[in-house]
Amino acid sequence: MSKIKELLLISSDIRGIAIETEEFDATLTVEESRLIASAFVKWLQKRYPSKKITELVVGIGRDSRISGPDLTREFIKVLSAFGVFVIDFEMATTPSMFMATQFEEFNCDATVMFTASHLPFYYNGLKFFTREGGLESSDIRDIIDLVDEEEELPQGPFATIEAKSIFRRYSRHLVELIRKGSGSEKEKPLEGLHIIVDAGNGAGGFYAEKVLEVLGTNTEGSQFLEPDGTFPNHIPNPDNKEAMGSIKNQVLAVGADYGVIFDTDVDRAAVVTGDGELLNRNNLIAVLSVIAISEHPGTTIVTNSPTTEHLKRFITKLGGHQYRYISGYRNVINKAIELNETGTDCQLAIETSGHAAFKENFFLDDGAYVVAKILMLLPRLIERGETLDTLIQELVQPKEVVEVRFKIETEDFKIHSMEVINEFPQWIPKDWTVNQENEEGIRIDFKGEFGEGWLLLRMSLHEPLLVLQIENDLVGYQEKILETIQEIMNRYPKINQSKLQALLK
C-alpha cells in the first residue's frame, strides 16, 4: 500500500521522506512517484483538453538529492508509457525548469522538478509548472485526488525520451540579461571582480563557470560546487546562520569582492560583501527594493510579516511602499499579482527566507535571477566608487534578534494555535501595543522597560509550531521580554516551552 496520504502538500509542491531513517519511514518512494506521474497525466489531459496525450511535452529535472535518480526514472517511465514526449533534463534548478516552458527549443507544456529545497537529505518532493507558472495548492490537491492506488499503471511501449541539459540554455539567458542590464558594451562587464559561489553541494554550482566566468569574473575560492545530495558541508540554505557564516568566512579568507550562496534548487540566494556584510533577510529585501524602486518609482514591495519596521521606513524613504503579508512564498507572490490586477503597481514580492520574485521575470522566485539583478548594478557602482554595502547604509539594524519555536503538543494544533494568538493581547503589559498593520498572527510593538522594538507570534506554515520573532533596537532587554512571554505561555500547558527555557538558563 502506498503512502500517498502521508505526503505533505505544501503550497505548490509535494514533499515526503524519500529515504527511510531510524526515525522516519519512507513516504515518497518509487511507488508514490509512479502513482503521482499517472495522476499528473490525467491532470494534464484536463488542463489541455484539445491536446492528445501523444502531443504533450513534459520536462523532468532534479536537484542533487541521492533519491532523485530513482524517483525521476520511474516518473518518466510512467509518462512515457502513456505516450507523453519526455525531456529528461537530469540535474536542473527549479527556476530553470519553469523556463523550459518558455524557451522555444524545449517547448514544454509542463515540467516537474524533484526537490525538497533545504530540507535534510532524506527528504524529496515535486514542484510542478506549466507555461502559466507554478501550480497552486488547489492544483496540487487536484493531482493527488486523481491518484488511483488500484490502477494498473502502463508498462510500455514507451514514447520518446530525450536527455538534454538545461544549464547551457539557462546560463546563456542569464548572461544576456546581465550584459544588457549592466549598461556596459563590454563582452565581460564584470571583468576585474572577484566573486565566489557557494552552492552547498546543491544544483547551483553551474553559476560560477557558466555565468560569472563568462562575464569576466574571477571565481577562485568558490566552494561546494559539486553536487552531493548528502550535503556534507552545510545546509544549503541562505537563511541558515551556519551556511551564511561559511560563505562569509570564505569571502574574507580569499579576499573576494562578493560571495554568492544558493539553496539546493536555486530558487533562493543571498550575497556577502567583501567586508563580510550579509545580504540576506531584511538586507536582501532592502537591496532588491533599491533596484525595483529605482526602475519603477513609487512601486510597492510585498514582503512577509517578519520584517523590521526599519525596512518599512527605508522603503518609504526610497519613494516606495511596503505591503506586509502572510508568510509563504506563494502567498506573497499571489498578493503581488493581485495588487497589480487591482491597479497597484507591484514589481517585487519577497520573503525574509530569500524567495524573491520580480514581475518582469514572470513573478518566478529565482535565486539565479536575483543574483543577476544585483550583478547588473556592479559596473555602475564601481564607476561611482561604491559597493552594495553603500546601498543599504541607511537601513537601521536591530541590536537584538531572537526567534523561538514552540511545539504544540495536541492533534488539533491549528485550533489551539489560533486560540493562543487570539487571546494573546489580553495578557500583554501596558507598554505593549497591538500593531494593526498586520495580516498574520499577532504583532506587538513594545517600548519603555522592554526596550524599543516589536515581536510577532504566528503559526508555522508546515509544522505544529508557534513561531515567535523578536527584534529590539536596544540591548539588554531580551531576558525580560522572554520572561514575560513565558508567563503568558504558562497559561497554555499544551505549548512546549523548552526552547524558550533554554534561552533563559
Contiguous runs where pLDDT drops below 50 for at least 5 residues:
none
For the biggest sheet, the summary is:
8 strands, mixed
Query: What is the CA-CA span between the terminal residues?
Result: 47 Å
Rg measurement, Å:
23 Å
Can you give keywords for this protein?
505 residues; alpha+beta; Alpha-D-Glucose-1,6-Bisphosphate, Chain A, domain 3; TATA-Binding Protein; 3 domains; eight-stranded mixed β-sheet; 34% helix; globular
Structural notes for this entry:
The protein is globular. The strands form four sheets. Strands 1, 2, 3, 4, 5, 6, 7 and 8 form an eight-stranded mixed β-sheet that branches. Strands 19-20-21-22-18-23 form a six-stranded antiparallel β-sheet. It has 505 residues and is of the alpha+beta class. A hairpin with a 5-residue loop joins β16 and β17. It has 15 helices and 23 strands. 34% of the residues lie in helices and 22% in strands. The termini are far apart. It folds into three domains: 162 residues, 3-Layer(aba) Sandwich (Alpha-D-Glucose-1,6-Bisphosphate, Chain A, domain 3), CATH 3.40.120.10; 222 residues, 3-Layer(aba) Sandwich (Alpha-D-Glucose-1,6-Bisphosphate, Chain A, domain 3), CATH 3.40.120; 105 residues, TATA-Binding Protein (2-Layer Sandwich), CATH 3.30.310.
Topology:
Elements lengths: L7 E3 L2 E5 L12 H18 L9 E6 L5 H15 L2 E7 L2 H6 L10 E5 L8 E8 L2 E2 L2 H9 L15 E3 L3 H15 L13 E4 L7 H7 L28 H14 L3 E5 L6 E5 L4 E2 L1 H15 L4 E5 L4 H9 L3 E5 L3 H13 L4 E5 L5 E3 L5 E2 L1 H17 L4 H4 L8 E9 L4 H11 L8 E3 L7 E5 L6 E7 L5 E8 L5 H12 L5 E2 L1 H7 L1
Parallel strand pairs: 3-4, 3-5, 4-8, 9-10, 13-14, 13-15
Antiparallel strand pairs: 1-2, 2-6, 5-6, 6-7, 10-11, 11-12, 15-16, 16-17, 18-22, 18-23, 19-20, 20-21, 21-22
